[in-house]
Write a structure and sequence with these properties.
The complex is a heterodimer. Chain A is an all-alpha fold. Chain A is about 70% helix and about 0% strand. Chain A has two domains: about 90 residues, Rna Polymerase Sigma Factor, Chain: A (Orthogonal Bundle); about 120 residues, Winged helix-like DNA-binding domain superfamily/Winged helix DNA-binding domain (Arc Repressor Mutant, subunit A, Orthogonal Bundle). Chain A starts with a helix and ends in a 7-residue tail after the last helix. Chain B starts with 8 loop residues before the first helix and ends with a helix. Chain B is elongated and about 60 Å long. Chain B is an all-alpha fold. Chain B has a single domain, classed as Arc Repressor Mutant, subunit A (Orthogonal Bundle). The chains are: A mainly alpha, B mainly alpha. At the A-B interface, helix 1, helix 2, helix 5, helix 6 and helix 7 of A face helix 1, helix 3 and helix 4 of B.
């Protein structure tokens, strides 16, 4: 009977569809969960976010034109779901006080400039020692402390390794915006690490970076 | 072969993060690499940023618990 045959075919296609979808999702689960953890900051909500993302991805799977783009596509769903969940919970996205254009004070902040001591001998490397002292927890806290707008790009770039072009597609913003958010996010992240390190006593009180900058050996800069 | 333009610290630092993100065009990349080779300060800065980036990446790695994998599989089984 024709209708039955059609139904069987449909069922077979659906099953194939599902098993290839499942394979892709399971292959990306650690990454999706890792990003979700830094976005929502706790395991339970991260698991819910991933589950919601997978459900939405399945429902809108036909909107994915090029199967090669599965990874950026599902991360787009993840970030969108996160943003709309925040809105629903009336957690004001912490963007109001932040303009898109980074201020010099934020993007110019450099941990390296704070830590580097150009007059030291080559085998002494305080900035590397500092990084080696940092624990995973310290880095997590610094990422978690970033305002949402900047946290998303830092997570997508530094944790998940997406290109600027892919991030522009995920966030539906121009590449220039990705660049400026990333620069600002990284500046803020380094500032947070610096603050944390000072509080935790990882570094001794030092001179202001500006003072150090100007006293830097002029021959050291080209 | 085309001679690579010589750039200073300010220019190098401006493009350093894009370089580490592998987002620089080949001409700019060569200029920057050449600068880093001869400038100790920018070389150390590049090494520092690279290490921080690696550490961040490692810190972001999470292992999914068995419960989430099971939950996702059950979820997909219902579709």
């Amino acid at each position: 009977m024709m209708p039955l045959q059609l139904n069987q075919e449909e069922t077979v296609t659906q099953a194939d569809d599902r098993s290839s979808f499942e394979e892709k999702v399971i292959g990306l689960l650690d990454q999706l969960f890792g990003a979700a953890m830094r976005l929502v900051k706790n395991r339970e909500d991260a698991e819910d976010l991933v589950a919601e993302t997978v459900t939405k991805a399945w429902t809108s799977r036909r909107s994915l034109k090029d199967p090669e783009n599965f990874r950026p596509w599902i991360f787009r769903i993840l970030t969108n779901t996160f943003i709309s969940d925040c809105r629903k919970r009336a957690v004001r996205p912490q963007t109001e006080t932040f303009t898109e254009n980074p201020s010099d004070a934020e993007t110019a902040f450099s941990l390296f400039e704070e830590l580097h001591q150009p007059f030291l001998l080559w085998w002494s490397n305080p900035e590397k020692e500092f990084l080696n002292k940092l624990l995973r927890e310290d880095l997590e806290k610094a990422v978690d402390a970033l305002p949402q707008l900047f946290r998303i790009v830092v997570v997508l770039s530094d944790l998940e390794g997406f290109s600027y072009h892919e991030m522009a597609g995920i966030l539906k913003v121009p590449v220039g915006t990705v660049r400026s958010r990333l620069a600002r996010g990284r500046g803020l992240l380094q500032k947070a690490l610096w603050r944390h390190a000072k509080e935790a006593g990882l570094i001794k009180e030092s001179k202001k970076s500006s003072e150090r900058f100007y006293e830097k050996d002029k021959n050291d800069r080209l | 072969m085309k001679k690579t333009k010589t750039i200073g610290c300010e220019e190098a630092l401006k493009h350093l993060l894009a370089y580490l993100d592998q987002e620089l065009g080949s001409a700019k990349r060569r200029e920057l690499e050449q600068h880093i080779e001869i400038c100790r300060s920018c070389f150390s800065r590049a090494e520092f940023e690279k290490l921080l980036k690696t550490q961040l990446r490692e810190a972001g790695r999470e292992m999914v618990g068995a419960s989430l994998e099971k939950r996702i599989k059950t979820l997909l089984g219902r579709f």
